Amino acid sequence: MSLQHFISKAISPWMKNGPGPDGDIVLSTRVRLARNLENYPFPIAASNDSAEALLDTASQEFSNTTFEAVGPLELLKLNDFSLNEKQVLVEKHLISPNLAENSCHGGVLLSQDESVSIMLNEEDHIRIQSLFRGFQLDEGLSFSNELDDWVEEKVTYAFDERRGFLTSCPTNVGTGMRASVMMHLPALVMTQQLNRILPAINQLGLVVRGIYGEGSEAQGNLFQISNQITLGKSEEDIIDDLKGVVTQVIQQERSAREALMRSSKIQMEDKVFRSYGLLKNSRVMESKEATKRLSDVRLGIDLGLITGISGNILNELMILTQPGFLQQYAGEELSADERDIRRAALIRERMKIEIENEE
């Protein structure tokens, strides 16, 4: 494998087998574990030599090793990447924005299907990330525990019997686990019910963020719901709490979709097909408009208004039309206006392929 393998396609292999459980609303599930190693200064206090030593240790222990469930893992050192190549990995959710910005001694271990990403020298020494299609929190926890045990066979974690796993940020101490689901909630946004739901979610110890996590804005009616509490609860309790809330949000989104179709079917059809027409024909498309129109089309697909187009088109084009991917395909840096023109052309071509395949 090579860097090109991981940045050449928008859709990661793990996403290609259709939607997972409740996949009309939950696009993906992620479980991330924050871990640090004994006898190494934490990244926030580490010298360049110490950070490089940890990366060398990871290279010796993990590079080209195999975790049986996903196969071999390949170590990529981010210092060898261009800024745009790192941006593409962020857009695919394979590394965090923080690691991309502070990657002098950073690295990432990736499985070939891109469902496993182990970031090195991010905020913590190790960030273990597992990704799943649809709503699969229980499966995500079980898999992540196995992966965590496999990593711990090779290194010694910084762990306190009373506090749990020790992390750079106090909010991660304890389990070190952040579990999240990526949800498409257009009906709750349209009916303005989400404004009422969000404060209630926050009061339950959960947080709602945008598509790229902390500090990012929601795009295309996509929201990431995750736990805030990592200390004082077991991993199982955290997962159960998150499952309960997400299940309720799924039900409310479905109810809102049904209500809109009963009360405003013509208006819904008009909204969906206007966006469909714009995506098929526009010559210039800004990023925010693209995500909005793609959300409308995905909703139309899930409601059965649009047929013959894969629901994966939202997942794919939401990534493919981001700045990093557009410039990667162009092979050069693009101005904002040039990106808008290329974005529109790429969407038109992708929609054309879908239509021709249906015919």
From TrEMBL:
Binding site for ATP: 28-32, 93, 127, 178-182, 209-214
Catalytic activity: L-arginyl-[protein] + ATP = N(omega)-phospho-L-arginyl-[protein] + ADP + H(+)
One MF term in the entry's GO annotations: protein arginine kinase activity
Keyword Transmembrane helix tagged: no
Record key words, sorted: Allosteric enzyme, ATP-binding, Kinase, Nucleotide-binding, Transferase
SUPFAM superfamilies associated with the record: Glutamine synthetase/guanido kinase
Gene Ontology, cellular component aspect: extracellular space
Signal peptide positions (record): none
Protein EC: 2.7.14.1
The organism's place on the tree of life at top rank: Bacteria
Activity regulation remarks: Appears to be allosterically activated by the binding of pArg-containing polypeptides to the pArg-binding pocket localized in the C-terminal domain of McsB.
Domain Phosphagen kinase C-terminal residue range list: 25-256
Motif RDXXRA motif of the pArg binding pocket involved in allosteric regulation location, chain numbering: 339-344
Family annotation (NCBIfam families): PRK01059.1-4, PRK01059.1-5
Function statement: Catalyzes the specific phosphorylation of arginine residues in a large number of proteins. Is part of the bacterial stress response system. Protein arginine phosphorylation has a physiologically important role and is involved in the regulation of many critical cellular processes, such as protein homeostasis, motility, competence, and stringent and stress responses, by regulating gene expression and protein activity.
Similarity annotation: Belongs to the ATP:guanido phosphotransferase family.
HAMAP family linked: Prot_Arg_kinase
Name of the protein in question: Protein-arginine kinase
